[in-house]
Specification:
Helices cover about 20% and strands about 30% of the residues. It is α+β, with helices and mostly antiparallel strands and about 200 residues long. Strands 3-4-5-11-6-9 form a six-stranded antiparallel β-sheet, with no helix packed on it. The protein has a three-stranded antiparallel β-sheet with strand order 8-7-10, with no helix packed on it. The chain starts with a strand and ends in a 10-residue tail after the last strand. InterPro entries: Cro/C1-type_HTH (IPR001387), Cupin_2 (IPR013096), Lambda_DNA-bd_dom_sf (IPR010982), RmlC-like_jellyroll (IPR014710), RmlC_Cupin_sf (IPR011051), TransReg_Diox_bact_type (IPR050807). Keywords: DNA-binding. This is Transcriptional regulator, XRE family with cupin sensor. GO terms for molecular function: DNA binding; DNA-binding transcription factor activity.
């Protein structure tokens, strides 16, 4: 079965349900809003706005929430239930969410494969860059244009169009654009890749 997202009412809101998924994950872990906010280093009012869908959190906030909930980042964007065998997502159905110098397009609004997500990012060149993040799973980045600088705990690399990098997302990483121009890249993340001991 092929599922065309454009046939679904309200499908233009790729991030719809994000706040509700965070609320359900929090409740399933027996946490109240104050406890989750403290674990994620957020103001309670900020968390309430996210859960109510009144605010779209920045990437570093999403990563902190995922870590505080002990889930992979992809689980904040998918409901974890297998979807249809194939899914079509039309370009005009993918909204861009701008937060703190970064534009994000979530390309997997529903899970075809639970634990897997894909997104397109555009980072504006700023002196600060994007705050370091870490979360469960593995990430793969592929640069479409510009220069993407990736800082890790023990090293850094600069990627240009056509370059890619893969790494454990548990390693703190900071992304920034170099050369005075935005960096645009694809990111694919997975919490499926387990070691023989069952670790991600």
């Amino acid at each position: 079965m092929v599922f065309d997202v454009s046939d679904t009412p309200g499908s233009s809101r790729a991030l719809a349900g994000l706040g509700d998924r965070i609320r359900r994950l929090r409740a399933s872990r027996g946490l109240d809003q104050g406890e989750l906010a403290a674990r994620a280093e957020l103001d309670v009012s900020h968390l309430i706005n996210i859960e109510q869908g009144e605010m779209t959190p920045a990437l570093d906030v999403l990563a902190r929430l995922a870590t505080a909930l002990d889930v992979g980042l992809s689980q904040l964007f998918t409901d974890g239930r297998p979807g249809p065998a194939a899914m079509v997502l039309r370009g005009n159905e993918v909204p861009t969410v701008d937060t703190d110098g970064m534009a994000l397009q979530v390309l997997t609004p529903r899970a075809v494969i639970p634990g897997l997500y894909a997104a397109r990012y555009r980072i504006s060149p700023t002196s600060e860059g994007v705050r370091p993040v870490k979360h469960e799973g593995h990430d793969w980045l592929y640069v479409l244009s510009g220069q993407l600088h990736v800082d890790f705990d023990q090293g850094a690399t600069t990627l240009r169009a056509g370059d890619s990098v893969s790494f454990s997302a548990r390693v703190p990483h900071r992304l920034s654009a170099l050369g005075g121009a935005p960096a645009e890249f694809l990111a694919v993340g997975a919490t499926l890749l387990a070691s023989p001991r069952g670790e991600v």
